[in-house]
Specification:
With about 80 residues, the chain is mostly beta strands. It has one domain (about 10-70). It has strands at about 10-15, 25-30, 45, 55-60, 65. Strands 4-3-2-1-5 form a five-stranded antiparallel beta sheet, with no helix packed on it. Strand 3 (about 45) and strand 4 form a beta hairpin. The protein is globular.
Length: about 80
């Protein structure tokens, strides 16, 4: 299956979750494919440095690759 992110990729939390993790960049440590096979609904476990709650699970649409960030990525819909 072709997931958008792979283990080891650096990502930034975007959209509404960005309010909880402003400016935070994490690393994908696990991929949990969605049961329907729709990669847009895949869940990614990310490790964010300096976040004390441990690993965080986010959906594909809640993450952006660090190489393609732009101003609208941090805004809530």
């Amino acid at each position: 299956m072709n997931h958008r992110f792979k283990i080891g990729d650096r990502v930034r939390v975007i959209r509404i979750l960005a309010d909880f993790y402003p400016g935070k960049i994490g690393t994908v440590v696990a991929v949990r494919p969605h049961e329907t096979g729709m990669t847009e609904l895949d869940h990614y476990v990310i490790e964010i440095p300096d976040v004390e709650m441990g690993d965080t699970t986010s959906c594909d649409f809640q993450l952006a690759p660090t190489s393609t960030l732009n101003a609208h990525d941090s805004e809530s819909p």
